[in-house]
């Protein structure tokens, strides 16, 4: 592998990892603070992608579709938290799994009714449609670089929100002791609603910016959900830092697993088997540190 | 009438009805009942984990599906595999797989366990979906149902739908009785103890990890039995048999019926399959064909169950008595 190819794959890996972080970060935040395991998290990624498609058709531009989509997904998150999720806080994991599994079926069918079952593509905005030449023959699309930059900005914003703001302080306190925060006069119900909506909006945002490169198709959320579970298991549940490290690791392993030829002795492994490399990584982490790289041991 | 006696009577009537069914019902009904029995075995195996050991697995379809693949790969082309060798083979393969996956996922607990079971199942899904081992995403056909020939003697013919039903019924009753005995055994008590308080069981001197792993392997093997029968009945296996939708459906069956109870999962399997059948025949309302989008009402039912009936159908009498 020459340097230019290596650089391209590295950029791909980082872009994929950062995108995963936006989704897995929300998943881990919702679990860490609210204690909710949300199987429907991938469905919000799908909803984001479909919103990007239909809103960019409506407005004629992805730039207008993204802010509108964020507003809609925040409202959706708040509505779902108010209608369903808040009833789960007193119930066990089993009820959470069941309810959010039911939610996946509902979202998937509503998607089918509202948007149909076809595969769609979203055009890359004209401003970012070019590519940067790396060598005479190889180049890298600007839009993919923009995805990385955009995700990075959001990662930094999320860090500041949680570590440096008053709301972040309340969130961290709420994760530690719900009753204490409540008795200090903080409206914990609204805090939880905010966190859930934040998680939903992050997943939907990831779906929106990924739509031009990944296309928009039914069931796209389930694939992402399971990879995000792997990210969270590797990083440690509830840890946003762990989600970032886990997501970047998965991005690297998945991308390079597909392009590097693995040889054991003289035997060349099937490239199809490379898709399983991320699960292998998860198995190693489970053996070595069952609570994840940044998780607190039970 | 006392409660145990009442239940014994109900059980007797049910068994008689189940034995009599193929003599009075049409082919479709018998085949549907066969499916119910197979899914009941599957749900009972998952109940060992969810209801008895308190381990919520979202990856139980892995063992169901791999046993199905085992039958498909053990069947020579255009010929039948032998029932007496291929069924144990499929169950052993599922058991070995459950041992390998269980040894890893049981290191995790709570939410980690749920996510890890799901992720490992998905790994097997991709293995079958992306590689050409067994027909890739299209799956693979099983040309003939397993042959029950045993040293020149053939007690039943699985190609006949009535015979197939009785085989499924016999295996169902066998698994039912086995789990009934298991629950009352020392092993069953230790598993129940682990569900309630694992730390205490450990301090009593029980190697809890080994008990949980044994339970996981046992559940995997019984799921394998169900998967083998399902593959034989439909004559085809594909990656969806390993998919997490099936894992979710079977979990729903366990909870619908009542987890931790003996009869609950079987009841739940019957209720779930009837519900699916009913929802799929829903009419067109306005612009929406509800029968085509039957998973929408199903999802709503699941959500309502999670919120209002966590103990399932077998919990309803208790609710009425106020001992909730």
Let me know the average pLDDT of chain B.
86
The beta-strand count of chain A equals: 4
Instruction: Please give the number of β-strands of chain B.
Output: 4
> Mean pLDDT of chain A, rounded to whole units?
86
Question: Number of DSSP helices of chain B?
Answer: 13
From the alpha-carbon coordinates, what is the Rg of chain B to the nearest angstrom? Answer: 20 Å
- C-alpha end-to-end distance of chain A: 43 Å
Assembly status = heterodimer
Radius of gyration of chain A: 20 Å
Brief overview:
Chain A has 298 residues and is mainly alpha-helical. In chain A, 71% of the residues lie in helices and 3% in strands. In chain A, a hairpin with a 2-residue loop joins strand 3 and strand 4 (267-268).
Explain what this protein looks like in three dimensions.
The complex is a heterodimer of chains A (298) and B (324). Chain A has eleven helices and four strands; from the N terminus they run H-H-H-H-E-E-H-H-H-H-H-H-E-E-H. Chain A has helices at residues 3-34, 41-59, 62-83, 93-115, 142-164, 166-176, 178-183, 188-214, 220-235, 240-259, 277-288, and strands at residues 131-133, 139-141, 263-264, 267-268. Chain A has a two-stranded antiparallel sheet. In chain A, strand 1 (131-133) and strand 2 (139-141) form a beta hairpin. In chain A, helix 2 (41-59) runs parallel beside helix 4 (93-115) and helix 9 crosses helix 10. The longest helix of chain A has 32 residues, at 3-34. By secondary structure, chain B is an all-alpha fold. Chain B has helices spanning 3-24, 27-53, 61-74, 83-105, 111-130, 161-184, 186-196, 198-203, 208-234, 244-257, 264-280, 295-308, 316-321, and strands at residues 140-141, 236-237, 284-285, 288-289. The longest helix of chain B has 27 residues, at 27-53. The radius of gyration of chain B is 20 Å and the shape is globular. The chains are: A mainly alpha (298), B mainly alpha (324). Chains A and B meet through helix 4, helix 9 and helix 11 of A and helix 5, helix 10 and helix 12 of B.
């Amino acid at each position: 592998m020459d340097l230019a190819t290596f650089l391209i794959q590295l950029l791909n890996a980082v872009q994929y990892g950062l995108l995963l972080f936006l989704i897995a970060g929300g998943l881990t935040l919702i679990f860490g603070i609210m204690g909710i395991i949300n199987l429907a998290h991938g469905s919000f990624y799908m909803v984001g992608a479909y919103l990007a498609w239909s809103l960019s058709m409506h407005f004629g531009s992805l730039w207008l579709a993204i802010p509108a989509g964020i507003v809609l997904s925040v409202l959706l998150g708040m509505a779902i938290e108010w209608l369903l999720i808040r009833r789960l806080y007193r119930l066990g994991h089993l009820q959470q799994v069941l309810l959010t599994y039911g939610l996946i079926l509902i979202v998937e069918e509503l998607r089918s009714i509202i948007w149909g079952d076809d595969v769609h593509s979203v055009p890359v905005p004209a401003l970012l449609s070019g590519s940067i030449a790396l060598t005479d023959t190889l180049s890298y699309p600007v839009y993919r670089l923009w995805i990385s930059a955009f995700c990075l900005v959001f990662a930094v914003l999320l860090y500041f929100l949680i570590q440096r703001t008053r709301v972040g302080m309340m969130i961290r306190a709420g994760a530690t002791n719900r009753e204490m925060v409540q008795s200090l006069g903080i409206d914990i119900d609204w805090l939880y609603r905010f966190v859930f909506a934040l998680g939903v909006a992050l997943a939907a945002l990831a779906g929106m910016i990924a739509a031009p490169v990944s296309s928009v198709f039914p069931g796209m959320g389930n694939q992402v959900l399971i990879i995000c579970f792997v990210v969270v298991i590797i990083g440690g549940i509830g840890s946003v830092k762990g989600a970032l490290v886990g997501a970047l690791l998965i991005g690297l392993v998945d991308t390079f697993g597909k392009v590097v030829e693995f040889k054991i002795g003289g035997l060349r492994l099937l490239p199809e088997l490379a898709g399983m490399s991320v699960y292998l990584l998860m198995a190693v982490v489970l053996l070595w540190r069952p609570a994840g790289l940044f998780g607190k041991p039970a | 009438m006392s409660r145990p006696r009442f239940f014994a009577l109900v059980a007797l009537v049910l068994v008689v009805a189940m034995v009599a069914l193929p003599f009075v019902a049409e082919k479709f009904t018998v085949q549907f009942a066969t499916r119910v029995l197979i899914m009941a075995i599957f749900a009972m195996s998952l109940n060992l984990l969810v209801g008895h050991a308190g381990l919520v697995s979202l990856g139980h379809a892995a063992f169901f599906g791999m046993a199905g693949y085992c039958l498909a790969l053990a069947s020579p082309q255009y010929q039948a595999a032998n029932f007496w060798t291929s069924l144990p083979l499929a169950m052993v393969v599922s058991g070995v797989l459950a041992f390998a996956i269980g040894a890893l996922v049981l290191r995790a607990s709570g939410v980690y366990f749920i996510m890890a079971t799901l992720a490992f199942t998905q790994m097997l899904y991709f293995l079958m979906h992306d590689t050409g081992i067994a027909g890739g995403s299209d799956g693979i056909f099983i040309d003939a149902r397993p042959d029950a020939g045993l040293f020149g003697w053939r007690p039943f013919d699985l190609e006949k739908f009535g015979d197939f039903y009785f085989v499924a019924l016999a295996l169902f009753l066998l698994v039912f009785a086995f789990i009934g005995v298991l629950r009352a055994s020392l092993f069953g008590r230790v598993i129940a103890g682990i569900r309630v308080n694992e730390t205490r069981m450990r301090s009593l001197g029980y190697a809890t990890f080994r008990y949980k792993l044994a339970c996981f392997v046992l559940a995997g093997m019984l799921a394998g039995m169900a998967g083998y029968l399902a593959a034989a009945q439909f004559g085809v296996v594909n990656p969806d048999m390993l998919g997490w939708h099936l894992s979710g459906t079977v979990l729903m069956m366990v909870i619908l019926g009542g987890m931790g109870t003996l009869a609950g999962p079987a009841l739940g399997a019957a209720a779930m399959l009837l519900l699916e059948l009913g929802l799929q025949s829903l009419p067109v309302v306005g612009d929406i064909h509800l029968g085509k989008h039957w998973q929408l009402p199903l999802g709503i039912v699941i959500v309502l169950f999670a919120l209002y009936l966590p103990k399932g159908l077998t919990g309803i009498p208790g609710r009425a008595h106020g001992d909730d």
